[in-house]
Amino acid sequence: MTNHPVGAVACALLAALFFAVAAVAQQQAAAAVPEGDSLVRALLRSPRWWAGIAGDVGGYAMQVAALALGAVLLVQPILVSALVFALPLAAKLNGRRISARTWATALALTAALACFLLVGNPSAGNTDAPLHHWLSPLFALAMLIGAATVIGLRSAAPGRRALLLGAASGSLYGVAAALTSYVTTLFEHGLADVLVSWQTWTLAAAGITGVYLQQRAFQAGPLSASLPAVTIAEPLAAAFIGVTVLDERFRTNSFGLVVTALAVVVMCATTIRLSSAQAAA
């Protein structure tokens, strides 16, 4: 992995912008599908949903570039800034104004994110960790994702169903992000190496399943339940893999770790607040 943190941050911010456009388009498309109708069929016929997919493709391309330049612990938390970009977009489409309190929340999220990056100073790790390093963390995440999916699909409460499916989707995106850096390096050795790698197929399965569960979450209940779950679960799952598998670390002292932890708490709280504001926008 090349370690160029400034380039990684710039690419991650562009990725967040693309993901924001995609989220606004996909939320509106999925929410318009009645619960009893075929979700996949309806979305495939929606131009707005396809516009969202185009945004996702652009965002993922920028995310790949960011992960090639910096650590998972550096890149993934920046993607929560998609909420800051998505809020005015959603408000503009729905003809609503954004309150001063919401802008203050967005500013707090931005400040917490900057604190996380500057104080925590995440380091790059080992992207080609052997399979046995992956087994236990992946198994733990798979159990959590499976439980959230099963309980979510069986839940009668729309808000709870949206929350659990959103958390499962975001966690799968986090797994995919953690695998992305290594898979992209395989292309340097030829397509054969890409196709025979277990990381490639795990990445594809996590990404495809994550997209489907995200649409189910958008359809199932209020956006104030699904959006924060997706947004928070992704960097948490990616950070878990980064620390336990990829040997990424925060380059700071004990006090810095406390400040970094507080920044994460503020990021989670402001993410939930901004998600609720976006759902109302």
Mean pLDDT: 82
N-to-C span = 40 Å
Protein structure class? mainly alpha
Order of helices and strands: HHHHHHHHHHHH
| Largest sheet geometry | none
State the helicity in percent bands. over 70%
* Residue fraction in strands: under 5%
| Radius of gyration based on Cα positions | 18 Å
Instruction: List low-pLDDT spans.
Output: none
Number of beta strands: 0
Helix count, DSSP H or I runs of 4 or more residues: 12
Overall, the morphology is globular
Keywords: Membrane, Signal, Transmembrane, Transmembrane helix
Organism: Nocardia suismassiliense
Protein name: DMT family transporter
Q: Characteristics of this structure?
A:
281 residues, mainly alpha, 12 helices, DMT family transporter
Notes on the protein architecture:
Residues 1-25 form the signal peptide. The chain is mainly alpha-helical and 281 residues long. It is built from twelve helices and no strands. The protein has helices spanning 5-31, 39-44, 47-69, 72-78, 82-94, 100-120, 131-154, 158-186, 191-195, 198-220, 223-244, 254-280. The longest helix is centred in the middle third of the chain and has 29 residues, at 158-186. It is globular and about 45 Å long. The mean pLDDT is 82.
Short description, anyone?
With 281 residues, the protein is mainly alpha-helical. The protein has helices at residues 5-31, 39-44, 47-69, 72-78, 82-94, 100-120, 131-154, 158-186, 191-195, 198-220, 223-244, 254-280.
Topology summary:
Layout: H1 5-31, H2 39-44, H3 47-69, H4 72-78, H5 82-94, H6 100-120, H7 131-154, H8 158-186, H9 191-195, H10 198-220, H11 223-244, H12 254-280
Helix pairs in contact: 1-3, 1-4, 1-5, 1-10, 3-8, 4-11, 5-12, 6-12, 7-8, 7-11, 8-10, 8-11, 11-12
